[in-house]
Fold each of these.
Amino acid sequence: MACWWLAVCLLSGIAAGEQLVGGLQVDSPDDPQVTQAARIAVNLYNRQSDDMYMYSTFTLLFPLRQVVAGVIYYLDVETVDKTEVINVALIRHQCGCKNTNECFTFLGILSPQTFVCHFELLEVPWENSNQLLKVQCRPSVEVVMVKHVWS
């Protein structure tokens, strides 16, 4: 009887459109908390990797959030190689390129090297801590954007 009552309670919450505690929640890429989490993840990765090709600007592709003992952000982020961004800025300043594509042509590159990185960031606000749980980066050949209308 207790199992039946639990099942009814759980199903009524799902039917009402409410999320289960600990479940994944789809976020808007424009949510300030999500963009801040992405910024933190990219900065932590840059510090931990000690790589000369540090990543800078980014585009959030499909962010998810899970509330546990803190918040885990699942972030797929398209990042740009910072060295090429700096080169474009220098060339644009020195040579007076009118637009970014003109600078890429001048540099002999079609576009800056982009990477798609999957970050799993644990944020525990009451401890003022952030920890990267998982990172996977790969060069992006083509990123397929899924159009989603956020309510």
Amino acid sequence: MPPLPKKKHSSGKRDRRRSHDALEAQNLVQCPNCGEMRLPHRVCPSCGHYQGREIIEMKKEDKK
């Protein structure tokens, strides 16, 4: 037979163990080129710029 726990773990013990499992909110920074919020150290998804240079050429949508 495999080993089994001798005593039941209390809900407090379980919750204290899980106290570090929560996800942290991601940091967002403002793009200096277009002002949209983006993840740090990544190309801006709305304008395609990173560190003052255009990395991805974005299509401009015509509003009708």
Amino acid sequence: MGTDWGATVQLRMPYVHKNFVVEGIAQSSFQRDEGIITILGKQHRPILSRRLNLFYGAGPHLGWSNETDSEGQAIKGAKGISGVIGGELTLGGVNLSYDFKPAVNLSGGSKTVYTQSAISVRAIILKRGDIFDKKKERERNRDRKKRRRAKEREKRGKGRFEFWKKGNDR
């Protein structure tokens, strides 16, 4: 069992890069009276298919603490930079991932460097392209309809108005 618990939300950002994700993490410790919020930019690299990925990224974190140090002084909330590296597998509507997340506190916190790891299970609410790719989807549908109509016209024959020719009795 781990020492922290948390919640995470991810959003794909295809306008930045095809496999770029912004992730927000809120976590709190079971052992200490502190918590941290992290915003990560992550790049995913598919292995074999888009369902199996390696990822890496970094971003800022901001924490709070109700702890005191050995001299009785209040420990300030952590402010710093977090990194992440890991892997994930998506099956159906479920995403399973393992990640390693080192964090460097530039100010505050009880330690300068933290290392954390996590196993995450996420439900996929919206699939790839449900939010950002509406324009591309409309263009694809428009092109698909054009191709379908062209095939139908070709199947019927180009001279459908030439009713006097043999084979055009429609």
Amino acid sequence: MVTLFISAILFLVTLLLIVSLRYLKHQKARETVFFLKDNSRLLNEIRFLL
């Protein structure tokens, strides 16, 4: 009974870790996309000025 409880807790912890890692990756990807968009806007403004 105790081993089952411990294994269940471990399973939940691993699931949480996987989900959080995926979420962090998603956030990173989103940030990079926004960063690239901002950079392209800056480049366009610079081109316009030149």
